[in-house]
């Protein structure tokens, strides 16, 4: 659905040249929810803005639904943008206009007939639970309601793609959950392809099918969210996930024995494999840290344990045979 091929974007300033995107290749499938994460300044905003050409790349191509966005003239670009909606961290609503006028705005720009606009706006406001707010102004709404208006406006022209620029970063956790549920629902019901940039790992864990990690304008890691989050390969991914976790430092644990990280996925998450195998092999274990959660709906758990007594190597082999991913950790090496 969306393909970035060798996309490069440079900025020049008095302080010197800066490469915000460095030869980025990325493929996002139709109907996917795709997350882009990275530290501040990694190039996330620049990347998402090349998809609707709010940023024009210096090199490379951006293909959306078979069309080269980078090659379009002004008229072609306007047309293409109807297929690509966007929402923002601070909503970017027109504060002097009512909610219904905000949602009507892109349809008016398109010159649609008045009766059609009225009907479409009513439909969108009802769909997003905003009907009772139609005559209000943005300042009279909460952050979550404002983001719903942003989504209604972004959907007005019936896009295939929705770009979300830190769409939940200004919202409290409960409202974030509400907006993520809504995006999830729109993805399923409309088949909408969603690209979201965020610094909130929890947002990716909750809704993204796949994720890309950016560092210094380069994609350093990409894959299915569960694969990347349970087994992060790049140091920046590892660091961002560790900050998001409880910050537990295994090296500080005052225990001897064989330390291991165990990863359970799918149904095995709920099976008592560890205690069964410990009993059968005669090892003892202490749990140093643990987390059981869902990543994009898939149950998964990760435990950091120390095996003492018995033969830890046998216990780890048995766990592996039973579908648990086992990573032995050399304490000194951490
Ligand atoms: N208009 C601009 N002019 C000059 N440099 C820019 C401009 N926009 C972005 N940059 C630089 O490009 C790099 C990438 O910026 P970008 O905003 O894409 O990163 P980001 O990952 O979205 O960061 P943040 O999470 O802080 O928003 C940064 O070094 C930034 O300073």
Give the gist of this structure.
Residues 2-241 form the ABC transporter domain. This protein has 334 residues and is an alpha/beta fold.
Walk me through the structure.
β7, α6 and β8 form a beta-alpha-beta unit. The model has no long low-confidence stretch (mean pLDDT 92). This protein has a six-stranded mixed sheet, sandwiched between helices. It has a four-stranded antiparallel sheet with strand order 2-1-4-5. The longest helix is centred in the middle third of the chain and has 18 residues, at 173-190. α3 (99-109) packs across α4 (114-127). It has 334 residues and is α/β, with parallel strands linked by helices. It has helices at residues 44-51, 74-81, 99-109, 114-127, 143-155, 173-190, 201-207, 225-230, 235-244, 273-281, 312-321; strands at residues 2-13, 16-28, 33-38, 59-64, 67-68, 84-88, 161-165, 193-197, 210-215, 218-224, 258-265, 284-295, 298-308, 325-329. It has two domains: 2-233, 3-Layer(aba) Sandwich (Rossmann fold), CATH 3.40.50; 250-333, ACT domain (Alpha-Beta Plaits, 2-Layer Sandwich), CATH 3.30.70. It contains eleven helices and 14 strands. Adenosine-5'-triphosphate is lined by residues 11, 13, 18, 20, 38, 40-46, 199. It comes from Brevundimonas terrae. One of its GO terms (molecular function) is ATP binding. This is Methionine ABC transporter ATP-binding protein. Residues 2-241 form the ABC transporter domain.
